[in-house]
Design goal:
The protein is an alpha+beta fold and about 400 residues long. It has 4 domains: about 140 residues, Beta Polymerase, domain 2 (2-Layer Sandwich), CATH 3.30.460.10; about 100 residues, Hydrophobic Seed Protein, CATH 1.10.110.30; about 100 residues; about 55 residues, Serum Albumin, Chain A, Domain 1 (Orthogonal Bundle). Helix content is about 50%, strand content about 10%. It contains 19 helices and 11 strands. The strands form 3 sheets. A 7-stranded mixed sheet has the order 3-4-5-2-1-8-9. A hairpin with a 5-residue loop joins strand 8 and strand 9. The radius of gyration is 28 Å and the shape is elongated. The termini are far apart. The chain binds cytidine-5'-triphosphate. The site of cytidine-5'-triphosphate has 11 residues, from helix 7.
Length: about 400
């Protein structure tokens, strides 16, 4: 048995010994029924958080305001959440409050989708008040009860619906879909981080296109922060959503989505900043869009120059984006060709040169200065493109001429 599951079951047993009901809930029950490996095993209990802290010697108050305490059971963290319902969600600008309740049924009733609203007791008995199993079998994402209510409690659930559609290849219940169309503007108050984190989960799926389909068909995409600032709902950007499934790389998927949102070079940086992506991702997306959206036929020499300047990963990603954007021609180099050129390149960066700056300074006979770096960069590119051999003598000879020029 998975050691995280064993730890969760031990925590449940201890809670029961102390007189409190406890169950496995949410994603783990769903995933096991689907024959998938759960991400984590969450426990729900009737014990109040302070009781949980009292019962277990090692706990971390990871989300006390939501009733969540992490119990460290033999070194393994187990999230234990007290039965609760959301409250006070009328004002979307204020985070919702929670109220603790005494029954599992009430706790499950406030959950988002029927497939996420099942529980299992310590002995393996399934508790399914809202026909989650039936919906798993019918492969449909349906809210627990009234979709308008569930989505008002937390607008992120509209995006989660799209994500689960992508994750399981299920369809979305019609009533839920209509509720998204009606309530999508409520998602404007979500934080960018929560939106981006759901999209990232979508990018981990082999086929995100059904989920992207929901986002574009319902117009939800144009209401999500920060997208609502960029796209006009009257112009749904995508009739090409199935193309999201052609590639697996999240950088290419981000780049394609940005390009469907009409992101030109002038606004690219500011949009990436609004998305709050990590700098490394930002740079990779900038390169991908720069190379992929201007992908054009060129000679071998020029491809190799781009390879040297941007690196193999950026070129492969750009080739994929160019394919999605319909810019690739049949005789453009494919990924195998790019890889072959890259492998054959004797120098891939300045540091690969067999000469150093100190040697160059000695040979040129000038004082150190910015010219040294410039000369080495020039020599490296020339050697990469095999215009000069990657050998000390030849490089120092060429370096003397160029160095003398750059140091003037
Ligand atoms: N906005 C939300 C988020 C979560 N949940 C409930 O909390 C559980 C755990 O949420 P989370 O860990 O975010 O998602 P999982 O369903 O576990 O899915 P995954 O692990 O695949 O992200 C969900 O199953 C669901 O019952 C909810 O009702 N509404």
């Amino acid at each position: 048995m998975d050691e995280r599951k064993r730890a969760a079951l031990q925590v449940m047993e201890r809670l029961e010994q102390a007189g409190f009901a406890a169950y496995l809930v949410g994603g783990c029950v769903r995933d096991e029924l689907l024959g998938r490996q759960p991400q984590d095993y969450d426990v729900a209990t009737e014990a109040h958080p302070y009781k949980v802290q009292e019962i277990f010697p090692r706990t971390v108050p990871t989300g006390l305001q939501h009733g969540t305490v992490t119990v460290v059971q033999q070194g393994i963290p187990v999230e234990v959440t007290t039965f609760r319902v959301e409250e006070g969600y009328e004002d979307r600008r204020r985070p919702s409050q929670v109220a603790f309740v005494s029954s599992l049924k009430l706790d499950l009733a406030r959950r988002d989708f029927t497939v996420n609203a099942m529980a299992r007791d310590r002995h393996g008995k399934l508790i399914d008040y809202f026909s989650g199993v039936q919906d798993l079998e019918a492969q449909v994402i349906r809210t627990v009860g009234e979709p308008l209510e569930r989505f008002r409690e937390d607008a992120l659930r509209m995006l989660r619906a799209a994500r689960f559609v992508a994750q399981f290849g299920f369809s979305l219940d019609d009533k839920a879909k209509r509720a998204i169309e009606q309530l999508k503007q409520e998602s404007r108050f979500l934080s960018v981080e929560r939106v981006v984190s759901e999209l990232e989960k979508m990018w981990r799926m082999p086929t995100p296109s059904p989920g992207m389909g929901i986002l574009f068909e319902t117009g939800l995409i144009a209401a999500l922060p920060p997208f609502y600032q960029w796209i006009d709902e009257s112009k749904p950007a995508a009739d090409r959503l199935e193309r999201f499934d052609w590639v697996q790389d999240r950088i290419v998927r981000w780049s394609y989505l940005l390009s469907l949102c009409g992101t030109g070079e002038a606004v690219l940086e500011s949009r990436l900043t609004q998305l709050k992506l990590a700098n490394r991702d930002k740079e990779a997306i900038i390169d991908c869009l720069k190379l992929g959206s201007k992908w054009e036929r060129q000679g071998e020499e020029e491809w190799k120059r781009l390879l040297y300047r941007f690196g193999i990963l950026a070129l492969k990603r750009a080739a994929q984006l160019a394919e999605l954007l319909g810019r690739r021609q049949v005789d453009d180099p494919d990924e195998a060709k790019l890889e072959e050129w890259w492998q054959a390149m004797p120098v891939k960066q300045t540091q690969d040169l067999p000469i150093t700056g100190t040697e160059l300074i000695r040979h040129v006979g000038k004082k150190a200065g910015p010219w040294v770096g410039k000369t080495l960069a020039y020599l490296a590119e020339q050697a990469a493109l095999q215009h000069i051999p990657n050998e000390r003598e030849a490089l120092l000879k060429e370096g003397c001429q160029i160095g003398a020029k750059y140091s003037q």
